[in-house]
Amino acid sequence: MSKRLSEEEIRENKLRREKKKLEKDLDPELDERGSEILCILREASDHPEIKCNAVYLQERLNATQITVYRAIKKLKDMDLIEERQVNGSYKIKRKVEQIYTKETQKNIDLIASMSGLLQQYEGTPLYGRVTSLIQFLEPKVFKEDILFSSGRVIVSPQIKYDIDIKNWDRVYEAIKKNRKIQFRYVKSSSERKMNAIRTVCPYQLILDNGSAYLSAYSEYANMILLYDLNFMADIAITGETFKLPKNFDFNKLNGGGRLGAFKDDNTQTFKIRFTDYAKDWIKRHKWADDQKILKETDEYTTITFSSAQEEKVFEQIMKWGCQAEPLAPRSLVKRWKQEIAALWEKIQK
User: Fold this and answer.
1) Average pLDDT, the chain
2) By C-alpha distance, which of 324, 289, 285 is closest to 305?
3) Is the pLDDT confidence value at 119 over 70?
4) Residue 155 region, left (φ>0) first, then alpha (ψ -120 to 50), else beta?
5) What is the pLDDT of residue 114?
6) C-alpha span between 234 and 321 (Å, rounded)
7) Cα–Cα distance between 72 and 67 in angstroms, integer?
C-alpha cells in the first residue's frame, strides 16, 4: 500500500506545483518546434505573398495540426507572435529580439569561441570550410549578423597572418593523393642563392599560432622536417606516390612537448625555476605531457618535464624575463646566459 500523504504534505506539493507553473509562465523556455516556427516566420517576412497560417506551417514542418497549434499557442503565450488581421497568417511581433532554444544558446558561445580561434586563419580554405560546417550545424544562429559577437565566451583578438593560399591548395592536394612534391625553400638569403630543389613526402599541414607549416619527410636529409608554407616556392606535384608510415603524426614526434610546431632531434629533460607571478601561473599550465612540480616554496616553483622542443622552451623562458630561470639541460642554460649577456652589451652601448 502507498503511504497516505498528510494535509501538510499535500499543501506543500500544491504550492510547489503552483510555484513551478508560475516560473514557467514568467520565463518560458523556447522549444525546438517553436524555434523552427520563428525561423519560418522570419523568412516569410521577406515574402509577403506567402500566407503563413497553420496549414502552411504544417506542410513546412511536416507536423500534425495539433502539434502546430500547441506550438503557436505557446509562442503567443510568450508574446512572441501575433495573427495578421488581413489573411489570418502569423507574424513575429515587431519588438521581439532574436530568441533561441536553450541548446542553441549554449552553441552560440561555442561558435563565438571557434570564430575567435579561427580568426588567425581568415581567408584560408580551412576557415571557409569550418564556417560552412557551422552554418550547416547551426543555421538558425549563423543567419544572424550578430553571430560572432553575441557569445559570452569569446577568444581575444589574435595576430593575423597572411598564408599563401595557392601553396595551401597545392600542398593539400598532394597530401590527399599521397604524392611527392618538389619546391624551392626560400626562407633565408643563402637558400635563395642556392636555388636548390627539394623533394619531400608531404605528411601533414600543421597550424600553429597563425602560421601554417608542412610536416614532410625529406629524402635529402633522411628525416621529417617542418617547412613554413609561405616560404615554399614553385611547388610541383610529382607523379610519384608514397606510403604513409604509421609514425607520421607530428604530435607523437615532439617528445611530449606542447609548445607548438617545432621538434629537436632528441628528447631532453628540462628543469625550470619560476618566481613571482610565474610560479603560480605555471602550476595551472602544461608545457609538456609529463610536467610535474619538482619543488615548491613561498618564493619559487620548480618544474621538470620531457620534450624535444628546446627552441620553443627557450622562447617561453625569455617571455617570462627574470621570473623564469632554466636549470637543465646544460645547452639551454648556456644559451640563456649568452642571450642575457648579449642583451646587457646592447644596454651598455
Assistant:
1) 80
2) 289
3) no
4) beta
5) 63
6) 41
7) 9
